Amino acid sequence: MTLAEKNIQKGWDFIFDKLYYPKTHMIYDFLYKDSIEESVDFYPNAEEIKNSFPNPCGWGTGMEDSTLNLCTMLETIENRYKATEDEEMKKYFDMMLEGLMITGTVSGSPGFIARCVSPCDGKSVYMDTSRDQYTHWVFAGHIIHNSKLARDEQKKSSAKIIVDIAKKMEREVTRENGGYSLRLDGGRGRVCQMISSAEAPLGPHEILRFPMFYLAAYEVSEDEHWLNKYRELREELLTETEKGFTVEWIEKIEKSFGYVYGTYQAQYSFRLLYDIETDEKYKERYLRLMQIAAEGSRCYLDTAHKNIGIYNFEQPYYRPWRDIKKVSYGNIDGYEYYVPNSTDGDDYIKEIELVRKNLRNTGEAVIIHNLCPNVTLNDEDTKKLTEIIESSNFNNIKSYWPIVLCGAWWGLLADKK
Questions:
Q1: Is residue 15 within 8 Å of 92, Cβ to Cβ?
Q2: What is the number of H-type helices and E-type strands within the chain?
Q3: Average pLDDT for residues 75-98, to the nearest whole number?
Q4: Which of 15, 56, 168, 222 has the most crowded Cβ, counting Cβ within 10 A?
Q5: What share of the chain is helix, strand, coil (3-state, %, to 5)?
Q6: Which residues are CB-neighbours of 47 under 8 A, at least 6 positions away?
Q7: What span, in angstroms and rounded, lies between the C-alpha atoms of 365 and 322?
Q8: Nearest 5 degrees, angle CA 223-CA 225-CA 230?
Q9: Torsion of CA 341, 346, 347, 349, to 10 degrees
């Protein structure tokens, strides 16, 4: 095995040995101690979650993005199976699907996708989720529906959740409430706006998530009601996206915000719409958006490669979120969104955050490229990915960044097969 192959396998082992918690079937965001079992008391408990402390999304606690993590790993497992035909991938596929079924049903409110389940009791969830959680869950459902690794009963179960999501969107997302999908308490979700407005315009990477949910519901149910709902939105929202989603816009985000995950999630919506759409005119337009995403996201890989000397670092465990200064992200429908500021007052921690950002961007930028049909990562960019993987410390991992690097690696190998 090459050094890159060895490191990717170390990353894979870390994900399933450390971040994945068999008792809840979740992949948590980071560690406070050597394992989730040892870290349990550091994650929010049932009472804190019930009181939406420190915020209704669980931001900054390690319980923020299990649905995202599960989806990325499901796609990674699918690609590893395509590349290797390793039958062991069926076991891993089942593990990820089990977690997704939990985040799709545990709240008891049909169509609500929970971010994560508390490791403290295996059932408590925060009341707020996000547009991104829905995007990842629905794309995972699209994978499940078309996968050779999924059994018929698994396809039926995931299809029901996708239709429930579509019903929730149809019921809740209206111009009158500002285009928001709702929290479990009936309030507007802090990051669940699905329709753009003059007062709160969506970014061009966010606009096509809403029709994505309807078309996915049509794919799994063959109910033309959902196809019609999708077509009612298709032209207007696609045109709106095309106006703003450009290579220049993606590169501008890299210079200001510095993260590519918005484009990554947009690529999921573009790819699902492209896969299911039958009208060639619209397929071509979705393809063009995917090509723009692939081209524009290369600057993130370039930036990460320029910083290649900083990745062989000794990553500390995360500081307990209860002890960290919290910053308000505003109040919405009666709840304050206080977020632990993990980089506050510590230059060393800020440096580690820069490392995590670059490694995350590396994986997501390559996944964006892999998702674009009929395009293969060029030799120069493949070399950059390999060198970043080789230069990173896979012996000392404390957070989620190996998830997207494994996703990039196995997606690339599946793409080249």
A1: no
A2: 16, 6
A3: 98
A4: 56
A5: 60, 5, 35
A6: none
A7: 33
A8: 110
A9: -60
Cα–Cα distance for residue pair 254/275, rounded to 1 Å = 28
Tokens, residue 268: 């999921």
d(CA 250, CA 240) in angstroms, rounded, equals: 16
Helix pair 401-416, 379-391: axis angle to 10 deg: 150
Query: SS3 for 254?
Result: helix
- CA 403 from chain centre, in angstroms, equals 10
Counted residue by residue, the chain has a size of: 417
**Mean residue pLDDT across the chain:** 96
Instruction: Work out the angle at residue 358's Cα, subtended by the Cα atoms of residues 194 and 66, and round it to the nearest 5 degrees.
Output: 50
Residue 347 scores a pLDDT above 80: no
CB-CB contact of 253 with 351 (8 Å) = no
For residues 215 and 272, is the Cβ–Cβ distance under 8 A? Answer: yes
Please check the confidence at residue 344 and state whether its pLDDT lies above 80: no
SS3 237: helix
pLDDT for 51 beyond 90: yes
Which secondary-structure segment (H or E) carries 162? Answer: helix 152-172
